[in-house]
Design a protein that fits this description.
Blueprint: H1 2-29, H2 34-39, H3 47-57, H4 63-75, H5 89-124, H6 129-143, H7 146-160, H8 179-217, H9 220-227, H10 232-269, H11 275-284, H12 288-316, H13 318-323
Length: 324
């Protein structure tokens, strides 16, 4: 198992390099110039001043030279300084990444504890009223745009009912609250973002869980287990569910990039000071170092998430790590 894990860890290095190369090229091919964005409000900025700014940022060099210089800094975990405020990019990312990871982790837990039992129960009660209702609910979940649903829930729970806050991660008067009230206030602020972030994953994973369980419970060994007189609970959770988890784990691992990437939209909608919102503002101002830093960190987190899914896959089915 250690050899399998070490081998998968080593594969992350060339993947990260490939992702950073493609990202760097795409950023520089995209329309917009950081210097033009910074000086568009300054009518007195001369052509010489703009040229000096390009030299300061290293934008006057060929793209491949800029990339190799970025790689040399990246090896030292130095992502450079922001073109907007001059702060170190790594510090800006470390300030914003905790809340993004917390929302992604809570969403993943919510998806796991709701979608799998829902899919398993639907599979064991195929064509029942519950199965039909959950199927309709899942199709609605697939078809409803999440940003639109987020706006509807903000209007309902935030504006009309006043039950939940609709922006930020804490109230303005948080300094007057005791510890318990602060935790409660923080939870209230996270309910809508976490629910909306998990919404798409709930629909897809519950369907995969249902179809995977349906395939497993039709196997001969499951019928044999029933014929031996085992209780349904033991057959489903001790014999069927473990085999049905294999494709589910894969889908769960593949949902991690969506959770991290989706933070760009949801953090902007809910005004959450996370990495996604930082990426949006950096993209609008063409802040190349910050964009590269966020995308690289996001890529590494995604690859680590897939690695965890692969290791879990090997734990569930030992034949996989033997073949590897």
């Amino acid at each position: 198992m250690l050899f399998y894990t070490a081998k998968r860890l080593m594969m992350i290095v060339p993947l990260v390099l490939g992702i950073t190369l493609i990202t760097f090229i795409v950023i520089h091919l995209a329309p917009g110039d950081p210097v033009e964005v910074q000086t568009e409000m300054s009518l007195k900025a001369s052509a010489q001043a703009k040229e000096n700014l390009r030299k300061l940022y290293g934008l006057d060099k060929p793209v491949h030279i800029q990339y190799f210089e970025w790689i040399k800094r990246f090896i030292k975990l130095d992502f450079g300084k922001s073109m907007v405020d001059g702060q170190k990019v790594i510090n800006k990312i470390f300030e914003t990444i905790p809340i993004t990871l917390i929302i992604a982790l809570l969403s993943l837990i919510l998806i796991f504890i709701v979608a799998i039992p829902l899919g398993v129960y639907s599979a064991t009660r195929q064509y029942s009223l519950f199965d039909k209702i959950s199927t309709v609910g899942v199709f609605i979940g697939f078809s409803v745009p999440e940003f639109w649903l987020a706006l509807l829930l903000m209007i309902l729970f935030g504006v009309h009912l006043g039950w939940l806050p609709i922006s930020g991660i804490q109230s303005i008067d948080v300094s007057n609250m005791n510890s318990f009230e602060r935790i409660l206030d923080w939870i209230k602020h996270l309910i809508l973002p976490v629910s909306i972030t998990a919404f798409g994953g709930l629909a897809s994973l519950s369907r995969y869980s249902r179809s995977s369980m349906l395939e497993v419970i039709k196997q001969d060994y499951i019928r044999t287990a029933y014929a031996k007189g085992l209780r349904e609970h033991d057959v489903v959770f001790k014999h069927a569910l473990r085999n049905a988890l294999l494709p589910i784990i894969t889908i769960l691992g593949l949902s991690i990039p969506g959770l991290i990437g989706g933070s760009v939209i949801f953090e902007q909608i809910f005004s959450i000071p996370g990495m996604g919102r930082l990426f949006f503002s950096s993209a609008m101002s063409r802040d190349y170092p910050t964009i590269m830093g966020i995308l690289t960190i996001g890529a590494v987190l995604t690859l680590i998430g897939n690695l965890v899914a692969d290791i879990s896959y090997a734990f569930v089915d030992p034949r996989i790590r033997v073949r590897k």
